[in-house]
Amino acid sequence: MNTHLTTALDLAARGVPVLPLRAGKVPFANCPACLYTSCGGRPNMKTPGPCTCPRPCHAWAAATTDPHVIAGSTWSTAWKQAAAVAYHPGGIALTVVDLDHADAVAWARRTLPATRTVPTTRGEHWIYQGAMSSANAVRDGVDIKSTMVYARWLGPGTGTMTALPDTVRALIVKKPSPVRPVTATVPTGSGECRHRTPAYLERGIAMAEQRITEAASAVHATVYRTFLAVLSAHGRCGCLTDTHAARLFAAAQTKGETTRHCTDAWTNARTALGM
Q: Which of 136, 159, 228, 270 could potentially form a cystine with 116 if both were Cys, beta carbons 3.0 to 4.6 Å apart?
């Protein structure tokens, strides 16, 4: 049996969702409808969440523990061409701090709590117990791989795994970029206002900001659903302003969302509501 397939089946039996990688650490495109896209939970999808294609889909959304899928006909050609096995860290409540060079490793040893480590070609993976949002280039040579991404399986590593610390979570929190409210395209609306007092709208916006900033995982999905809820409650009467939208965008950006992600989520929410 193919060595990578054997490894994948062994990991799956231990509850680790896996997928094959081509040379260059690139996933196979299993579904033509999602060719070379990142499926599930992206803000440019109307319904965030795992891909619902009839076959295992692309990248992290394809990761599975089902031995019939892993060893079945869908992936039979993939394993013959596979250069590595990957897994979805967030799928088993893990976070990988990917340290890409010696300076990054030295920084981690000075800054982060010790945990299980796995050697890589140029650096190390530090693995913590607990899931969070993923982000690339949080500092020089440091990526965070947890939810909605895949990581190469390079062995079990050494050392005792520790709980995900706040110092790692804080790495993805960025100062919000300047928000252009016009990007949000706030609906003007002409319906009857259902707000009892100005405080009703203010309370709704404040709760939406809190929901976004407190999201510990699935940030893309949380932002979309929050935008959807705000527009559903306040978007048809004309009381929602550019200032309100800017506050929501700023809250999303503190969680690492880009202006484009925010705009896509806002647009998709409006589309879903027929605005």
A: 159
Rounded CA-CA distance 224/137 in Å is 24
Structure confidence by residue, pLDDT tens digits, 84-117: 999 999 899 999 999 999 999 999 999 999 999 9
Q: Is the pLDDT score of 159 beyond 90?
A: yes
> Is the pTM higher than 0.70?
no
Residues 6+ apart with CB under 8 A from 66: 12
Q: What are the two backbone dihedrals, phi and then psi, of residue 271, each rounded to the nearest 5 degrees?
A: -65, -45
- Distance in angstroms (rounded) separating the CA atoms of residues 220 and 163: 23
Q: For residue 177, how many C-alpha atoms fall within 13 Å in the half-sphere facing its CB?
A: 10
- In the numeric block, which tokens belong to residue 168? 């790692």
